[in-house]
Amino acid sequence: MSTTKTPIRTVYDGSNAAVGLAEYQNGEVVGIEHGGTGGNTIAEAKLALSLTDSNIRSLISVTGSGSYDNTTGIITVTGGVTSVGGATGTVSNAQVAAAVVAAGSLDTANVTERNNLYYTNARARLAVSATGSINYNNTTGVFSFTQGNTDTIVEGVNNLYFSNTRARSAFVAGAGIQINEGTISVASTLDYGLIDGAVTSSNDYGSI
User: Fold this and answer.
1) Number of Cβ atoms within 10 Å of the Cβ of 116
2) Residue 58: phi, psi to the nearest 5?
3) Among 204, 197, 168, 200, which Cα is nearest to 184's?
4) Is 60 within the bounds of a domain?
5) CA-based angle 116:119:121, to the nearest 5?
6) Residues 146 and 124 in one domain
7) What is the pTM of this model?
8) Residue 43 near residue 52, CB atoms below 8 Å
9) pLDDT tens track for 57-95
């Protein structure tokens, strides 16, 4: 704790000439005209400075949502903020944000975008790419298939393309039929079984 010090004053003689320095003595004060308080006590200083309760209160006024009694010095706040989002005292940013969300007034229309970006068609299209036989326009979002016919589409295992060889191999020649390079005809000779009886003319019949 600091020690209270006694200030020094100038000592004057009868001719008002400074003759030395001395400590202030009890009852001696610095006048208001010289920057002092004009009193040894708070009460004396207030009186010398005309700092009465009444004078001080008369210098105060209140505007807006409040009232002031200059007789008692009491200031009453009316219509002010008593709580924020149901919280009183020191209210944190988290409490304010939670209250706004609970009220349903916080949405992407009034929340500033930061690291979590909002959806746009342009952003979605830029996030997609295509390879191989698919062409992609990331401005319009349109995909197109570049292999549009059987000349450029690789043949799979099950759905095979047509060929003459495959078509011909799908047929089997039966008795009396011959197939040669896709041409189907009756065999020139019959070499199946034995013919019983004699056939002497076109009108004769035997048995096979």
Assistant:
1) 6
2) -70, -20
3) 168
4) no
5) 145
6) yes
7) 0.32
8) no
9) 888 888 877 888 888 888 888 776 777 777 888 888 888
Which structural domain, as residue segments, surrounds residue 155? 120-159
Same domain? 149 vs 173: no
Of residues 44, 72, 48, 46, the one with CA closest to residue 60: 72
Write out the H or E segment, with its range, that includes residue 97.
helix 93-102
Query: Taking the CB of residue 126, how many other CB atoms lie within 10 A of it?
Result: 12
193, pLDDT greater than 60:
no
Residue 57 belongs to some domain of the structure: no
Nearest of 174, 202, 166, 168 to residue 190 by alpha carbon: 174
SS3 call for 20: strand
Q: Which two tokens stand for residue 95?
A: 């409490």
What is the C-alpha to C-alpha distance for residues 157 and 123, in angstroms, rounded to an integer?
A: 39
Say if 147 falls within a structural domain: yes
Predicted local distance difference test score (pLDDT) of residue 202: 54
Higher-pLDDT residue of 198 and 93 is 93
User: Has residue 65 been placed in a domain?
Assistant: no
203 and 176 in a common domain: yes
